[in-house]
């Protein structure tokens, strides 16, 4: 199936972002690739976000505004997924913005067999992969969990048919982990594309309510989701990504154990950490992420001596 001039559906969940929303929506409207729709789901905003979003819906028929009760970002994204009409799907956070060729570059990376295209994560210094280099699913998950392309949805373009039965888990943090685990079962042995253009998505690093800016002990759910993903990757014999996801989870748990005060959450985290650490392939991981591995080994030794 040709991808030439195929419609793209942007899904934009909105909640109290009026200082940034106009710039975000303008950056979508001014894309050099113009065949798109924008589904704006207002998750119960109480500021001027509704007025801003509605103004775009009035002046541009490609913009659709939907108002819902405040049920969280995952719920809003899932509403968007249920309404898309495009053959491709892109997720944009409402306080971020896009460079003008964001969409054009991703579309051009697709051929008939490609299911996902991705930019590198904004902060990555990894330059080995050239533009539009085909990679396997095993490599794709390795690059996500090693931070090269990140376990995020906003720097990627998805073929819509692979997301027909995929949804974000609602009411939890780190919802992208489970989202990608569902995708794994759809794409399995296909190839994806990595696009080496670092600055086409302008990500706002610190945002109010962002899980990176506040510590929540319930984030341990993310570690549980990652352990489920590890089991699935093992079943599918994705050996490289098994090691990387395992290490990523251990790094997360190490930081979690050091930060959390709740005794029960700490004990649960230590139990998961010990189980994963027992299966670490230290030789293989030394060549993948030696600094990560060193921090984990040192932490493990300190834990034993306490």
Radius of gyration over alpha carbons? 20 Å
- Per the CATH scheme, the topology name of the largest domain is Spore Coat Polysaccharide Biosynthesis Protein SpsA, Chain A
> Could you give the order of strands across the largest sheet?
3-2-1-4-8-6-9-7
Approximate helicity band? 40-55%
In the CATH scheme, the class of the largest domain would be Alpha Beta
CATH architecture label name of the largest domain: Alpha-Beta Complex
**Low-pLDDT regions:** 209-214
Biggest pleated-sheet summary: 8 strands, mixed
Number of discrete helical segments: 11
How many β-strands, per DSSP? 10
Q: CATH superfamily membership of the largest domain, which one?
A: Spore Coat Polysaccharide Biosynthesis Protein SpsA, Chain A
Order of helices and strands: EHEHEHEEHEEHEHEEHHHHH
Number of domains: 2
Q: What is the approximate shape?
A: globular
Estimated structural class: alpha/beta
What would the average pLDDT be, to the nearest integer? 85
Strand portion = 15-25%
Report the span from N to C terminus. Answer: 60 Å
